[in-house]
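Issue: copy button drops trailing tokens. Both records pasted manually instead:
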Amino acid sequence: MSPLVKIRSERDQMSAVERRIADFVLENAHLLRDYSSQQLANALGISQSSVVKFTQKLGFKGYPDLKYSVGEAIARADNGDTLQVESTAGNAGTGAFAGNLWRRKSEAEEATRLINPPEMLDAVADAIGQAGRAGKVFIIGLGEDDIYARNFALRLSLLGILTVHNFDTARMTANVSAAGAGDVLLMFSEHGNHPALCKIARYFRERRGQLITVTRHTANPLRTLADIALVVSAHDELPYIQPLLYQSALQHLLDGVFVQLCEGHDDRRALLLGNLDRIQQMLEP
């Protein structure tokens, strides 16, 4: 894993001092070779030991090891895909900023992919698939989270998986009363700290259902209740950029689960094609 991707993916779980170091490294990666650990500490107004502990917490032997690894990552990027992506975006006439946004989205998607290993996506797809054969899949998201909850519920329905989607906590509480062992509750909550969702999650666990949460890669109450926790890594200092990175990485993550549900299941793919064809016929005049 690239050290910059690793830092970006772990940032949300760092302490305040560690985040300051992480942000400096991410924003000044090209200049890091000119900084000793003491100079970096002086620039941030922290102790040298904090810098050393930061690098060791990331799995490096020390600061020189981190600096060398970052230098290698930059050299590979200068000769590889990142430069090509930015160039392609510029040629498309979207400008340097759009190219930079494309790169940031790609980095967020990569970080999210790395912290959600294939076996976790397999487990989510298996749980949803089994619930679809013998039970129900409950799906809820509030506010902007409902956009992705609603879209994913539609995709599952196209595969012939019975879904119970709601964006109202009172109605979902009533729906969950009919849940049982083998059912799945998929909860979308970016920050994972909505009290009502946590109560519904506990109630669902009492019904012996399997809880799957989709939140940011942070420590949050909802994530601690989950049987399987999907997490999204997306950080940016600009408040209008960070939501875009989160949405892009989240959609990429859900696409991976959807593909897993389709792979190796001819019956689901047949239902999908049949449902898409019927919907198209309904839309035609």
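Record 2 (pasted manually too):
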Amino acid sequence: MSALTRFLVAFAVSASTAVAFTGDMTHFTPGLGACGRFNTEADPVVALSPAQYGNDPNPNNAAVCGRWITIHGNGRTTAAQVVDKCADCPSGSIDVSPVIFDDIAPTSVGRVQVTWEFQ
């Protein structure tokens, strides 16, 4: 295999690997989110920290709005759609609707360590 071919294969593998974030997952009652959509507690939605949401002058136009993430924690996996920005969340942490939190742990727990990545 030529050096160019090895480089291209290594590049393709690294480009397809998702970046994983680690942080705390908490839950909130959704309403009108930063992406400009209204959601309820039954919707599979997530608010990202400012570090992952970004600082678009118009948050409705943020590149992350509408994207889905996969969340791993407590030996379980679930998916949620980005609809909001969590102003108080540190980088890597997320705030999810109760229906998503329940997929990972009982809401009574309040806070769970998770990893997540964009789909």
